[in-house]
Specification:
Blueprint lengths: L14 E2 L13 E2 L10 E5 L5 E8 L2 E6 L4 E6 L9 H12 L8 E3 L4 H6 L8 H15 L5 E2 L1 H7 L8 H10 L1 E4 L7 E10 L2 E10 L4 E7 L1
Parallel strand pairs: 8-12
Antiparallel strand pairs: 1-8, 2-10, 3-4, 3-7, 4-5, 5-6, 9-10, 10-11, 11-12
Length: about 220
Amino acid sequence: MGMESAGYSGDEAGIEWSAGASPPRTGDSFEVRPPQIVPEAAPLVDEVTGFIAGYRYYSGGFWMIWDLEGNLVETGELPLEAPLIDPIDLLSGGLTALLRGLGGGVLRGVGRGVVAGAARSGLRSLSTRTVMALHTVLRKLIQPGSLKFTVTTVERMANPGRYVPIHILHLAIRHGKQLPDPQGVLGAVKYVAPMWKNGKQYMLEVVVRAHDTTVLHFLYK
C-alpha cells in the first residue's frame, strides 16, 4: 500500500544491492510503462522472474512488440490466406514449447480488458530472437549494481510492504517526470512516474543522487 515519506540525507554511502538483503518474494505484479508503448498493448510476462519483460499490441492481423525500455523489437502482419495451423492451437499447447527461452523462462501474454480478446484472435508465437531481445533488456535492468542504495533504502527494499523491483525504479528514473529534490540535497533529483501494482495505479517517487546513481528515498502512494 502507500507509504509515508521520511527524511533522508545526501551523505549516506551508496552500496550495491548484492551487499544488502535479498528482495522479498511478494508475488506482486509491478509495471511502469514507457510512454511510447500504446495503452492497448498487452504485457508479456517472464514466468521465471514474474516480471513484465515487454509488450505486444495486436489488431487486425498486425502486431508490434516492444521491450521494457520502449524499443520496437518486432513488427509484422498475418498473411491474408488462412494459416495452416490455428493460432488458438498454438496458444493452448505449442506456444509454451515455442517460447522456451533464456534460463528456461517462458513469456506469456497477459491481456487486460479489450487486449484479452485480441490475444485470443490469432497471435503468433514469439521468435527466439525476440525472446532473447526481451530477456537481454530485462536482465540488464535487474542486474546487481545497476543501482546503488543506502542502508535505509536497502532495509526498505527488504520489506514486502515497501519493496519495488530494481527495474521498476530504473524505469521510473528513465521515464518519470524530473523534479528538484524537495529536501534540497545537493546533486539529488526526484522522479515521479505512474506505477501499477497488481493492476492498481499508484504514483512512484524516487530520489536519486545523480553522481553515483544511489537511491536515497522511494515511495509509492
